[in-house]
Amino acid sequence: xxxxxxxxxxxxxxxxxxxxxxxxxxxxxxxxxxxxxxxxxxxxxxxxxxxxxxxxxxxxxxxxxxxxxxxxxxxxxxxxxxxxxxxxxxxxxxxxxxxxxxxxxxxxxxxxxxxxxxxxxxxxxxxxxxxxxxxxxxxxxxxxxxxxxxxxxxxxxxxxxxxxxxxxxxxxxxxxxxxxxxxxxxxxxxxxxxxxxxxxxxxxxxxxxxxxxxxxxxxxxxxxxxxxxxxxxxxxxxxxxxxxxxxxxxxxxxxxxxxxxxxxxxxxxxxxxxxxxxxxxxxxxxxxxxxxxxxxxxxxxxxxxxxxxxxxxxxxxxxxxxxxxxxxxxxxxxxxxxxxxxxxxxxxxxxxxxxxxxxxxxxxxxxxxxxxxxxxxxxxxxxxxxxxxxxxxxxxxxxxxxxxxxxxxxxxxxxxxxxxxxxxxxxxxxxxxxxxxxxxxxxxxxxxxxxxxxxxxxxxxxxxxxxxxxxxxxxxxxxxxxxxxxxxxxxxxxxxxxxxxxxxxxxxxxxxxxxxxxxxxxxxxxxxxxxxxxxxxxxxxxxxxxxxxxxxxxxxxxxxxxxxxxxxxxxxxxxxxxxxxxxxxxxxxxxxxxxxxxxxxxxxxxxxxxxxxxxxxxxxxxxxxxxxxxxxxxxxxxxxxxxxxxxxxxxxxxxxxxxxxxxxxxxxxxxxxxxxxxxxxxxxxxxxxxxxxxxxxxxxxxxxxxxxxxxxxxxxxxxxxxxxxxxxxxxxxxxxxxxxxxxxxxxxxxxxxxxxxxxxxxxxxxxxxxxxxxxxxxxxxxxxxxxxxxxxxxxxxxxxxxxxxxxxxxxxxxxxxxxxxxxxxxxxxxxxxxxxxxx
Length: 839
What we know:
The protein is of the alpha/beta class. The chain folds into five domains: 10-126, CBS-domain, CATH 3.10.580; 136-254, Roll (CBS-domain), CATH 3.10.580; 290-383, Beta-Lactamase, CATH 3.30.450; 408-576, 2-Layer Sandwich (Alpha-Beta Plaits); 587-833, EAL domain (TIM Barrel), CATH 3.20.20. Helices cover 44% and strands 23% of the residues. The longest helix is centred in the first third of the chain and has 43 residues, at 247-289. α19 links the parallel β23 and β24. α2 (58-68) packs across α7 (184-193) and α21 (628-638) packs across α22. It contains 31 helices and 34 strands. Residues 350-404 form the PAC domain. Keywords: CBS domain. Pfam families: CBS, EAL, GGDEF, PAS_9. Residues 13-72, 79-135, 204-262 form the CBS domain. Residues 436-569 form the GGDEF domain.
């Protein structure tokens, strides 16, 4: 790293206008001439011979001002040292060393024995070609003394004495608003003017120009040149003055740092040479043993060398490849434009990398990751190309598989929710631009859980696979079927022209689903419910269309299943109303909005109350009494039924305890429990704790479960019922006859009573089928030793019919409607005060 331009000499940077004077000139006059010329020195010549006697400098002026010389003394007698002469053709870097080693500030530039100019330390600093070196070196790296500081009230004599004693060419003056500076040039000026200021604050130059100690040497040098100054302040992070940087500091610091860098560079070079010898051997080994294929070509792409990995990957031997071009591996999968762009990039950037599908010698395709680098000489001419490639076929296949799995359902291979929503949104965007329609079909299988519970999950999975194939068979080009989750499927119909066309397609898909008669030898009937939303009428984005199709699907289920429904705006209103109702239900317990009403159970022969059924009511602050059939299904779906069921059980036991203590209740209180409630936690223990808390016997309570819950053998319900039977709890089956009862299964259940569903009682006196069913249920109950309770008795004729069948107990409007607990308590009190009467 040269310190200056290779051919630069001091003659090129020297000042040719020499300021000279005879040796008889008074010191004060010499100082005046130097100030007028802006020079830091004056050449003293013999008047007669023109011989240079010496140089009088600013440092000599400092001595004169301190009283060591008479201002009228001839300058020839005040010269402190002889003149230093340097040849005009001395290279600048040698001049730098001379100034450093001999502590020079000035030197005469001599040519053929005659002075042709003066070179100063200033010229040296300003003309060194060190930008690349100086920019990475900091001012803080330079050695030097701390700044010499004097207060503004100090005298010039104090300043000059301090500068001389400390060997400093400048000092800083502490001012109220910063710093000023006094240099040897100022001493020269005072000497020339034959007058000194009273204090340094009156005459110092301000402001003090400086740089932070983190600044580069290049910044420092440029600032010196910009302001034409010879001293620069160095400030710390807090603004404190650290040093005054002079020309000699820069020269010595640059030399010191440069020599350190040079020695380090030489050490690194020697180390690199040793390493390179090892690297050549290592490179040869790497070339031969690396797993990546390597091809070296000339500038025209002709192969000059390949490594063993090239042969292993491509199947071509070294001999077969030499003299050929890499085009021998082309598969035809990349168009000519691909290779044209590759060569353009190589010519422009000198490198290219990417993925390429090539063909092995045997004809098989493979994917490689390829990097090509151009090798250039000192003139930037391309000599060779080096291509390094690796076989990534298996990795690409794995990536494609992962991408497929991330976007498709693992069971059916249909697109999943993520991919379907992307395609749906893309279809909506195309429809928006093209002005055509889009239809979204949301499909949910009916009673799919029954398949899993009865035939097992494997059969359920096989069914889903068959349905996926049936849906795909119904698709036209450009349409998409997807499985969102569980038994939910969606179909995207793009370009739909109207509801009639969409309805026909929807019915065809439902018919294809119901056509599945079984799987793996298991006969079954499968149906589905479908909701349809249309773009743009039902939504203008994918999420909205999906939500509306889902809403329409639920309406199809409510309408009897195995059908489809188009979305309408009122569906959304009802869905919002349902959400609002669910939100209100969450707070109903805390707000004490739930109530427990009771409907009496009466003996058909006497008409007296023999028990009661606890019925849940919700008194909404705005809607009033909400019918149970509106909020119980919501509680079931949202899992609130567990909390509500616990409250019902606790409240019913509390009421029972009160009525038992009053001697009013002649029988059991029946409480309905859901399957979710029975499966939550240890219900048997909770039941036992509740009875104990209210001091009730197990015979005081009756639990009613539906047929579907009692028949859930897979859910362990039979075992649960047996544990409750062990506690002595009276168990009965509610709404008997509406489910899918198995008589052989029924006899295994630990129940003691059946309740005939009101739907059979309503027409039992007018419909022979209902009468026959009622008669059969009573007969079954008697044969199994079970009690029978008829629900929904509203007519006297129905009472007599049931009594004639041997049914002893009933409840219904004929006897009493459900009523709040306090009213029921009054009814019990009235009965207690009256003797038993035959009906």
